[in-house]
Structures are given as structure tokens and as C-alpha cells.
UniProtKB/TrEMBL annotation, chain A:
It comes from the Eukaryota. It holds the Pfam family FeS_assembly_P. This is MIP18 family-like domain-containing protein. InterPro entries: FSCA_dom_sf (IPR034904), MIP18 (IPR039796), MIP18-like (IPR002744). Keywords: Chromosome partition. The keyword Transferase does not apply. PANTHER family: CYTOSOLIC IRON-SULFUR ASSEMBLY COMPONENT 2B, CYTOSOLIC IRON-SULFUR ASSEMBLY COMPONENT 2B-RELATED. One of its GO terms (cellular component) is iron-sulfur cluster assembly complex. Belongs to the MIP18 family. Residues 44-117 form the MIP18 family-like domain. GO terms for biological process: chromosome segregation; protein maturation.
Automatic annotation (TrEMBL), chain B:
Keywords: Repeat, Ribonucleoprotein, WD repeat. This is Probable cytosolic iron-sulfur protein assembly protein CIAO1 homolog. Essential component of the cytosolic iron-sulfur (Fe/S) protein assembly machinery. Required for the maturation of extramitochondrial Fe/S proteins. CDD domains: WD40. Belongs to the WD repeat CIA1 family.
Length: 161, 427
């Protein structure tokens, strides 16, 4: 068995008790079907919070890899920018986690939405290289045609039972 | 208003007897252009990566992540126009899929290229191979293709393929190499060179055909390592080396395109005025490339053969520029660009009289050409036939006169699975 990249991640259990809440006004707007429902950072966060870490039985939210404050949405340009924070600076799973976020949002958000996924600045040793790979859509597409890799990604996207 | 201009002969250091070849550029700013939709070609089941026109007929090829290549053509309906067709903007005409190349590639077909005669199509695939397809019929009006050869050698996804002649082509790959292949027999190709030097994924390659009789072709490749490399064959056959590395872009260089050069635009005008004159020296093609850094750069060679930047276009695209394609030479120096903000932009180049400066300006913009990224743009190189079609259509509706470029067709392919055909005319 290979050595774990990060054997002792910090788990933030409280995350489950303090889920972000929408204001009453926002909840009312959601009921009004005539009101166009814009994408916002909470919705994006909702899509990716439950992605599983490749190594541990925890979600990205529990490990604080993804947080709503690190998500930017430009509704006019239909652009979503997500920063995620690997659990350790040398994490070799970082690109894989980025792929999971990218694919999940690609499937969940309206077609034509531009999704940019970046490592939180200063949080990874190979920040530039990882960011360049994750935002090369051709390499992302080619990677996801690799069945072995796609299976790993799919298992991370599936909800816990 | 020009976006940017730069001295074209900044490095003018003419040691040696060779003269710098002139550029095929007009002296006046080109007129603004109008781009009108002609057809939306539906059929691919996944993103369209590449569109490419047959050099000898109005047939368009498109390649897709659905692992197929489709051939499209504009068909005239022989029977009288019925009620249904009256609703189409192009009365009596419709673009249809006439052939599909399928079953041979197990993954995305990333790029396609027609050989100069139109007799062969080469495909580059993520399955690590390139394939060569040959027309199965001698009938000039039939476009059935059958597999002729599989080019196997790359260690990872093949990103681009480009013919030099009907017997020589180049491929490039994520394995960082560019390969040159020569046809040695029917259905058989031999590797004539493995060109290594890029530090990363090679995105595209293109040939600069020889200008003079004695010159040799050059091969260009652009890469995820942010550079464009120029490859030349040494005196010893099949000995390729990197002649120059062009470093200007800050991000991945996605595409490189060579201007088609037949005869100087200004030379043609001069000949019209003077009714004959001394032969002008051949023009050199301008090279352009586009990048993740949202810029398009244009390059020419100095007297020593080294490339340098003559002008850069920026500010018109909000996301990566994935593709550039030149218009036919008799339409002026026009380049189409496709970008990740779903946009197609047409740029025009011209030069100053006497000051050796080159300028670039935006001639047309299609902000929502596709519903997703634009991956490929290509001008049809046959203007005459399209012009005839246009006259026919225009005469049916009204008697607008056609300008010289009104029959120019442009195709694009995008992440919305669509192939689109546009007509470019003066505004």
C-alpha cells in the first residue's frame, strides 16, 4: 500500500452544523418562478461541497478545500472562478481534485458557463503548473477520455451513501 | 483605429547580399466587413474541434470529440422551391452532411487537414495516431473517403496534422515532438524526422512552403511552453533542426497560420495601372499565432531569414484565442480569430507608405458566434464559385451589386457541437 500523500488531514466537523444560509429575501425570490435565477457563489458551492477527497472519507467542504468565500461569479459574463486549497502544499492529488471540481461544475451549471479553477495563491508548491493544466480545456478533455482517470473522478463525484 | 503598430524593419541589418522580401499588404486601411450567417450544420454529438475546407471544391470537413469527421456541402435542390424551403434564408440551397469518416479513431479527432490536391484528408486523434484517408472515387463530384494509412509513433495525443504536399505531412503531439512523414508507396508512410525541442505539449504545426525555386520549406510548431519553433531541414536529407525559437507570448500558443501568398496586392494594382511592368520579387508570407494570453502576433523574416514581430493585436478578446485563419490572398490580408469568449473577430493588416510600418485593425466582430468557445475558424479558398452562388441568391431578392469579397465563406466550429458557415462581405 502506497504511503498517503497527507496521512493526517484536519477535519472540520462543524461545517455540517453551520451551513451557509440564504436571506429570507433570497428564499422568496427562489419561489418566484418569473424571477430569473442567477448563478451565485452559494449555488456553485452547493454543487462542489460534497465532492469526496480522493484519499480520505471526507468531503472537500469538511477538509476546507472548498469554501464559499473563495468562489467568484460574474453573472454578466457567465463566468465562474473557483479557488480551492489543497490540504498540504506538496499534495500530488491537487490536479485530480481540480479536475473533479471542473467536471462537476461543467455538468451542473448552464451550458456555456465558463469555469476557471485555480489553486488558492500560496497554498501549493506547483501552483503555476497546476493552474495552467486545469485551465487548458484541451488537456482537461483529453484527461477525461482516460477511462481509469475518469473512474477515479466519478467515484469522487458520487455522494456518500 | 489601428490597435498597435511597430516598425517592420527594426532589426534591419542587411549583411549579405540577400534582400528582405516584401510583404503582401495593401497600403490603405482595409474596409470594414459584415459577417452574415449562412448555415448551422448540426450532426456532431460532441464539441467540434476543427473545420477545414477542401482546397479544390466547396466541401467543408469538421472533426469532433465524437470521434468522427463529417464532410458538408451546399446542395442545390433540383426540384422547384416548395413551401417549406421558402422559409429558408438561402432559397433552394442547403448545407448537408455528404459523408462521415467514422470507426477508425477510438478517441477525439482533434484536427483535420486536406492535402493540396484535395485527394487526401489527414486526421489527428487523441488515440495517439494520425490517419490518412483517400478519395475512393475518381468522380470529381463524389467525396467518399476510405482509410489509406495509419501513422503510428507518437506516445500521446496527436494535436495537429498538416500537409506540405500530397506526399509529405507533419504531426505534433502532447509527447512534445513533431514528426515529419513521407509517402513511400501507396498506403505506406515513413517517418522522415522526429523533431524534439519543445519543453511541453505541442499544440499545432504548419508549413511555410518554399518561396524561391531553390528554397526548402520550413515547419512551424507552437506549444504549451509558450513558444513557436521554426524547423529547417539541413543539407543532409531528413536532418531537421530548430532554426529559431519565437518567444513573445506569455501563455500557451494555440495556433499558427501562414499567410497564403500568390502575388502582391500592390503589384497587381501597379500592373493594372502600368499595363505591364518588370516582374516583382516574390512576396514572403506573414506568420501569425494566437495564445492563451489573448493576443495575436504577426511575424515576418528579415534579410537573414530570422523572424521578428511586425505587429501585435490585443484587446479584442476576453478569453483565450484558440484559432487563427487567413483569408485567400485576393481578398486582402484578413485574418479570422476564434476565442473562448464565443467570439469571432476579423482583423485586417495594412502597411504605411514609405515608413515600413505594419498596422492591424478590427474589421468585424461576432460577439456570440457560438454558444460556447470557438475552437476553429477557416476561410474557404474558393471565392469564385461562392461568388456565383451569392449572385444567384442576391439577384433573386434584389439587385444589390456584389463587391469583390462578397462571395467569401468562413466556417467555424465550437464547444456547442455546432459547425457554422458565414458569408463575409464589405459592410
Amino acid at each position: 500500500m502506497t504511503e498517503l500523500v497527507n496521512p493526517n488531514p484536519t477535519v472540520f466537523r462543524d461545517a455540517l452544523q453551520h451551513q451557509p444560509q440564504r436571506s429570507a429575501e433570497e428564499l422568496l425570490q427562489e419561489q418566484d418562478e418569473s424571477f430569473r435565477d442567477p448563478i451565485d457563489s452559494l449555488e456553485v458551492f452547493h454543487h462542489i461541497r460534497s465532492i469526496r477527497d480522493p484519499e480520505h472519507p471526507n468531503t472537500l467542504e469538511e477538509l476546507k478545500v472548498v469554501e464559499p468565500e473563495l468562489i467568484r461569479v460574474d453573472e454578466v459574463k457567465q463566468t465562474v472562478r473557483v479557488q480551492f486549497t489543497p490540504t498540504v502544499p506538496h499534495c500530488s492529488m491537487t490536479t485530480l481534485i481540480g479536475l473533479c471540481i471542473s467536471l462537476k461544475l461543467q455538468r451542473s451549471l448552464p451550458r456555456g458557463t465558463k469555469v476557471d479553477v485555480y489553486v488558492t495563491p500560496g497554498s501549493h508548491e506547483q501552483e503555476e503548473q497546476v493552474n495552467k493544466q486545469l485551465n487548458d480545456k484541451e488537456r482537461v478533455a483529453a484527461a477525461l477520455e482516460n477511462k481509469n482517470l475518469l473512474n477515479v473522478v466519478e467515484s469522487c463525484l458520487n455522494e456518500f451513501e | 483605429m489601428p490597435l498597435f503598430s511597430a516598425s517592420a524593419s527594426g532589426n534591419g541589418n542587411n549583411t549579405g547580399g540577400a534582400e528582405e522580401k516584401p510583404l503582401n499588404l495593401p497600403f490603405d486601411p482595409p474596409p470594414l466587413l459584415r459577417v452574415d450567417p449562412v448555415a448551422v450544420l448540426v450532426g456532431h454529438e460532441d464539441r467540434v474541434w476543427c473545420v477545414s475546407w477542401c482546397p479544390t471544391a466547396n466541401v467543408l470537413a469538421s472533426s469532433s470529440a465524437d470521434k468522427t469527421v463529417k464532410l458538408w456541402s451546399c446542395l442545390h435542390h433540383a426540384k422547384a422551391v416548395d413551401e417549406q424551403h421558402q422559409q429558408y434564408p438561402q432559397k433552394g440551397l442547403s448545407w448537408e452532411c455528404i459523408h462521415t469518416l467514422a470507426g477508425e479513431h477510438s478517441r477525439t479527432v482533434r484536427h483535420i487537414s486536406w492535402s493540396p490536391s484535395g485527394e487526401y484528408i489527414a486526421c489527428a486523434s487523441f488515440d495517439r495516431t494520425a490517419t490518412v484517408w483517400k478519395r475512393a472515387s475518381d468522380d470529381l463530384n463524389r467525396f467518399d473517403f476510405e482509410l489509406e494509412a495509419i501513422l503510428d509513433g507518437h506516445e500521446s495525443e496527436v494535436k495537429c496534422v498538416a500537409w506540405l504536399t500530397d506526399s509529405t505531412l507533419a504531426t505534433c503531439s502532447r509527447d512534445r515532438t513533431v514528426w515529419v512523414w513521407d509517402r513511400v508507396d501507396v498506403g505506406e508512410f515513413e517517418c522522415a524526422g522526429v523533431l524534439a525541442g519543445h519543453a511541453q505539449d505541442v499544440k499545432a504545426c504548419a508549413w511555410i512552403p518554399p518561396i524561391d525555386g531553390g528554397a526548402k520549406p520550413l515547419l512551424l510548431s507552437c506549444s504549451y511552453d509558450n513558444t513557436v519553433k521554426v524547423w529547417a531541414e539541413s543539407h543532409r536529407r531528413d536532418d531537421w533542426h530548430c532554426f529559431q525559437t519565437l518567444t513573445r507570448h506569455d501563455e500557451t500558443v494555440w495556433s499558427v497560420a501562414v499567410q497564403p501568398v500568390e502575388q502582391s496586392i500592390e503589384t497587381l494594382r501597379a500592373e493594372e495601372e502600368e499595363e505591364g511592368g518588370e516582374a516583382q520579387p516574390a512576396c514572403q508570407p506573414i506568420i501569425c499565432c494566437c495564445s492563451d494570453d489573448k493576443s495575436v502576433t504577426f511575424w515576418k523574416r528579415n534579410a537573414e531569414g530570422k523572424f521578428h514581430v511586425i505587429v501585435t493585436a490585443t484587446g479584442f478578446a476576453e478569453r483565450s484565442i484558440y484559432t487563427v485563419g487567413w483569408a485567400p490572398s485576393n481578398c486582402g490580408a484578413i485574418v479570422a480569430c476564434g476565442s473562448g469568449d464565443n467570439k469571432i473577430t476579423l482583423l485586417g493588416l495594412y502597411q504605411s507608405r514609405g515608413y515600413n510600418e505594419v498596422h492591424v485593425t478590427v474589421l468585424a466582430e461576432l460577439p456570440s458566434a457560438h454558444e460556447a468557445d470557438v475552437n476553429s475558424v477557416a476561410f474557404c479558398s474558393i471565392v469564385k464559385g461562392a461568388l456565383d452562388d451569392n449572385k444567384e441568391v442576391v439577384n433573386d431578392n434584389n439587385n444589390n451589386s456584389s463587391s469583390s469579397s462578397s462571395g467569401l465563406l468562413l466556417a467555424s466550429g465550437g464547444d456547442d457541437n455546432m459547425v457554422r458557415v458565414w458569408r463575409v462581405a464589405r459592410a
